[in-house]
Design goal:
Blueprint (H helix, E strand, L loop, with lengths): L1 H8 L1 H9 L15 H11 L13 H19 L1 H25 L2 E3 L3 E5 L2 E3 L5 E5 L6 E3 L4 E5 L2 H65 L4 H62 L1 E3 L4 E4 L8 E2 L6 E5 L2 E8 L11 E6 L2 E13 L25 E8 L14 E6 L6 H7 L1
Antiparallel strand pairs: 1-15, 2-11, 3-10, 4-6, 4-9, 5-8, 6-7, 8-10, 11-14, 12-13, 12-15, 13-14
Helix pairs in contact: 6-7
Length: about 425
């Protein structure tokens, strides 16, 4: 045991022993060495700090050999503690590898928020608000009423336009009746023309006959002149009948033009009626799609102007805009599965998928994009917006734009080592 103690202390004990002043030898007889001196002699005979059985080595190698000897001594003295430490080290290394392998299959960011195409609800017509059947943050369906405006003026305008439409239709019917009459008049004039032509043929025959008799001496000059005059009268009558027919035909064309004008007036009246109906329908402000009414500012008795915001509408169609670093997009593709953790509801696991990746960083589409060509340039990792659509959005909680989300996108579909081990 004493030798082990000397070994643990190293050469320090030997050095202390050598530094002590030796006692002068007695001139009488040699003194008998004491018990301590006898036990110290083997230690002084060996080099300081050198375990027994080790060869003489230089200083650094001697210290390394001593450390190795002490390590082997610790393993021999505490084998259980050494085994437990080795097991813990192996478990830590294995857990670290599992964590690194599992993390390599996913990409995550805390720079993500819920987004939606929210809009302002505003009327298209002016008037006093008579009813507001919704309240703040209420969920509405498509075509649900959000506000009503006094519609009496618009109903009166609709009645006026309907009367104008009726008058235009009556005018067209009147013109149609005139067209029928004129068509009959044209038929009568055409019959007169036919009658005049027949009389003209007979007059021509009579005039030719009596002119031949007068030339041959069997007829009188008076008869020849009389039938010659009748021939000219029939010619004039035919010309008059033809002119009357043309006049009736021209009047028919004029009536047709009047009818076209009446049809245009009818179309104008109908357009005014349709506009009046639209204005009347605009007095009822409805939701265009399912969603929630927020920032409600409409009140009964308030005078609403066209375009004045009554409330803000947030549709049910929402998604997550995740601003990943550009170095995280190497293996990210549309369709990759994603898990969404919403800060407001940490206990819910919402599934989703990557819908699209914006073709450009967020600063490229900002109001004042960066101008890297001017001044000193410092490279900064840019962030690119990624649209993630929810596959199972919850219905029992309110989700709206601006809420913080932590998305985790699986960029490697192959199972990790940890997932394979969990199957067993």
């Amino acid at each position: 045991m004493f030798e082990d103690n000397v070994l643990e202390r190293g050469g320090r004990l030997v050095e202390d022993a050598e530094s002590l002043p030796s006692a002068p030898a007695s001139p009488r007889e040699p003194a008998t060495p004491s018990r301590n001196e006898q036990s110290r002699a083997p230690a002084e005979a060996r080099p300081s700090g050198k375990p027994p059985g080790l060869p003489s080595l230089p200083g650094p190698q001697q210290r390394q050999a001593a450390d190795a000897s002490r390590g082997r001594g610790l393993l021999r003295r505490r084998p259980v503690v050494s085994a437990i430490g080795a097991l813990l080290l192996a478990a830590a290394l294995g857990a670290g590898y599992l964590y690194v392998d599992q993390a390599g299959h996913f990409q995550s960011t805390d720079d993500a928020f819920i987004a939606a195409r929210q809009s302002t609800i505003a009327p298209k017509v002016s008037g006093y608000i008579t009813a507001v059947p919704v309240t703040d943050n209420q969920h509405v369906k498509a075509d649900d009423v959000i506000a009503r405006i006094d519609d009496r003026d618009y109903r009166t305008a609709l009645d006026q336009t309907q009367a104008q439409v009726a008058a235009a239709k009556a005018s067209i019917e009147n013109i149609d009746a005139q067209l029928d009459v004129q068509q009959a008049q044209i038929s009568a004039n055409a019959a007169q023309v036919d009658q005049a032509q027949a009389a003209l043929v007979f007059a021509e025959q009579q005039a030719a006959r009596y002119e031949h008799l007068e030339q041959t001496g069997y007829g009188t000059i008076q008869n020849a002149q009389q039938y010659s005059s009748q021939l000219r009268q029939q010619q004039a009558a035919l010309a008059s009948a033809q002119a009357t027919l043309k006049l009736a035909q021209r009047q028919l064309e004029a009536l047709k033009a009047q009818r076209e004008s009446a049809l245009a007036n009818l179309a104008q009246a109908q357009a005014q009626r349709d506009q009046a109906q639209l204005n009347l329908s605009y007095t009822t402000v409805t939701a265009a799609q399912p969603g929630r009414v927020v920032n409600l500012g409409a009140a009964v008795g308030q005078f609403a102007q066209p375009g004045t915001g009554l409330a803000t509408f947030v549709p049910d169609e929402i998604w997550v805009t995740a601003n990943f670093k550009e170095i995280q997009l190497d293996r990210m593709r549309p369709g990759d599965a994603a898990t969404l953790s919403i800060d407001a509801y940490p206990g819910r696991a919402i599934r989703g998928h990557v819908d699209s990746v914006q073709p450009g960083s967020g600063t490229a589409f900002s109001l004042l994009p960066a101008q890297n060509a001017t001044g000193n340039y410092v490279k900064i990792v840019q962030r690119v917006p990624v649209k993630i659509v929810m596959d199972n959005p919850p219905d029992d909680v309110a989700l709206g734009p601006g809420m913080s989300v932590v998305p985790t996108v699986r960029v490697d579909a192959t199972p990790s080592l940890f997932e394979r081990l969990r199957r067993f």
